[in-house]
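# nightly structure sweep
# worker-07 picked up a monomer target from the shared queue
# config: single-sequence mode, recycle default, output format = structure tokens
# input follows
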Amino acid sequence: MSLLDFLLQLDAKILLLINGMHSEYFDWFMSMYSSKWIWVPMYAAIFFVMVRNFDWKVTVICTISLTLVIVFADQVSATLIRPLVERMRPSNPDNPLSEMVHIVNNHRGGRYGFPSCHSANTFALAFFVSMLYRRRWLTAFLMFWALLTCYSRIYLGVHYLGDLLAGCVIGFIGAFFIYRIFQKVSGVTYPKRFDGYLVPVFVGLVTIVFIFIYAGVMCMSAFDIH
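# output follows
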């Protein structure tokens, strides 16, 4: 067996292990957690910290840089690499493995999944914001948020671990190089105090609590219907 074959088999085993540990409650939780729109309040909180601590010129440059980071991660993953690699998602009906995959809410994603755009985008944002704000608790929360996002993608059966690891690397590369350019263009100097840097953490935690409650309500509603 070649090393590539071994890694592919290992990827499939990890996918089936995590995807197989499912319940109705976490089907709802992971599905909602994996949604991009649920995190809009946290993104707004990150922007709030920019406005609070930088002047308007640096804030504009910072916003453009963060947008470029996400665009880089997303387009390198979806437009450049996926059409070249053509690795089928585990949930795709044309993939023989899909017969063993638990599908949540009939969501299978697109045809190809390597690398994961969810992973690339979330880690790109997490790495860039961590470099920008340089605050331990914010960094820890963002890494936890990105890692749980990746776990949710395996749980939902739409990505292998390898897809997510590749996305993480792409996100880091984009964040690192664009942050270096941002430093040179903006000439930013960091204040000793970073006012409000825990606001994104608070908003993110509130969002997670909301998702926990939402999943419970949906489970009870389904139980009542049955």
